[in-house]
Amino acid sequence: MITRIRQRLFTLRHTYGNPLDAQRARVLLYLSLALILITVATMIFVQIPDSLGSGNIDIPGLISAIVVIIAAALSYIFIQRGKLNRATWIVLLAITLGALSAILFGNEGLPTVSSSVVIFLTVPVIMSGVLLSRRGLIVISALILLVVALAAAIQTTITQPVTYNPSQFALSDFAIIAISVLIILAILFAFLGTLQRIASESFDVNTQRRWINLLGLELATIGNEADVLSMALGQVRRVFNQRFIELYLANEDGNLANVANNVQRRLLIRSIEANIVAEAARSRILHTTSLRDDASRRTHMAASTSYAAAAPMIVGTQLLGVLDFQGSHPFTQNELDTFQQLADQIAVALHHIRHQIELEMQTLDHEKTIKRLQTQLQDYTRTQSQNVSDVWSGYIAGRGRQAIGYNMDAETVEPVQATDLPGGLMSTLQNGKMEVTTQNGEQIINVPIKFRDTNLGAMSFAVPADRPLNKHQLEVATTVAERLALALENTRLFEQSQSQALRERKASEVATALIGATDVRVVLNMAAEQFKDALGAVNTRIYIQPETLMEPLAQTQQEK
After folding, report:
1. Domain positions in the chain
2. Whole-prediction pTM value?
3. What does the alpha-carbon distance between residue 84 and residue 75 come to, in Å, rounded to a whole number?
4. Which CA distances in Å does 435 have to 109, 275, 459, 480, 511?
5. Could you tell me which CATH class the domain 221-361 is placed in?
6. How far apart are CA 140 and CA 89, in angstroms?
7. Are strands 268-269 and 287-290 parallel, antiparallel or unpaired?
8. Which class would CATH give 406-494?
9. Which position among 182, 299, 369, 429 has the lowest Cβ density within 10 Å, counted as fewest Cβ atoms?
């Protein structure tokens, strides 16, 4: 019970980003609690006995004590809420006004600068110098000097003698001096070496940040995930003096697997567990724990460690894992920030290598797909060329010829059928390339007629020799040959479609005529006639198994 109360009262619950502010808040937190205890003790053991002994109640002193207690309580609340500046001013003003009230009303309600309370004025001056900026120090010091000067000026006007009994004020004077010295000692002790410590921590943090950046550059050059994790863990353990540092990766089930494969450590942490590693994975923020926390939050900790911090490894919205730090001393805020930055750097390197491997796999799959499509395209092109060649060979053979040729000269408009093959066209038909030769004072242009890389034929142009051919004219000749090939293929397809349609029409007519007959012999006679008309047959024979004709007759006899 006492331990819980102590932890609750003396623990700084708000997280201050600036280490100097965190130190000030911690000192002011302790000071606020100390002021409450000291003021209450002073009221019980000093002010109340003095009032009872003298018979006079020190109203200003009691009011000052109550104000200090209320101000210290408010300051404590503001510190825990992160409002450090407001808490500092409340405590300083309360202490300053309390000390000044003793100066203004210390001599039986009259101002005095000759009492022991004057030494307490050094407390707000030192506190303002430590806790406030230069402007705050000037404001507090100016206020104290102004009030002290006013009290001294008023005291110079008081001429009546004052009876002073040293034994009566010995205890109160000692208490005031002792409290002043203790408060000043506590403040100076708390801040003794703070700037040096903060400067040392800042230097260490900058050194670690530079090392983290270098580590990120080194990890980016590694092409294997296992090597990335091994190097990251090794470097981190070396830099942080071999602390217990483990790396857990998120698997497909959402659980966390230890990549170190150390049998002395936990190999798997389920996502539903209560320890800080699983909690960091669920909440996506850094979590800390110690031996003072509940045992369920530290089930992953080693027996020789007392503190642990779990930093999630996140890239965008994707959780890659959790980096677990353990040690025997509490972590500072700078160390926690360094841990998180280190986890982020490892997460970026891990995401980079995974993305790189994924891209390599996709590239390999695309290359395989491209090769397969190229093979299919080559097979298709070869098949199409073979089909086109076979189709046109059958088309020409169907006309009873091996080739079809036409001539056209300048005097005739209509092409004239030709049976001869000029010698120059044979080479073009074989190699499928344009050739330009000179014969009998003329330029002969032999252009292949290609359809889908299949030579359907060739064209031969005769141009006078005195007309030089340019590149544009040759391109026009090639274009004309390509258009001719397309027109020939379209014409062939049209003729094929007409022939197919004619066959379908004849077959439909024959089928219609046969379906209308009701006797087998009539059907056979009609079929013979239709086949003779449709196919131009001279003689038609149709054979049917005898059993087929006898089945209807036998069935009729059985029914009778």
Report:
1. 2-158+166-192, 221-361, 406-494, 517-559
2. 0.49
3. 8
4. 129, 85, 11, 15, 55
5. alpha beta
6. 10
7. unpaired
8. alpha beta
9. 369
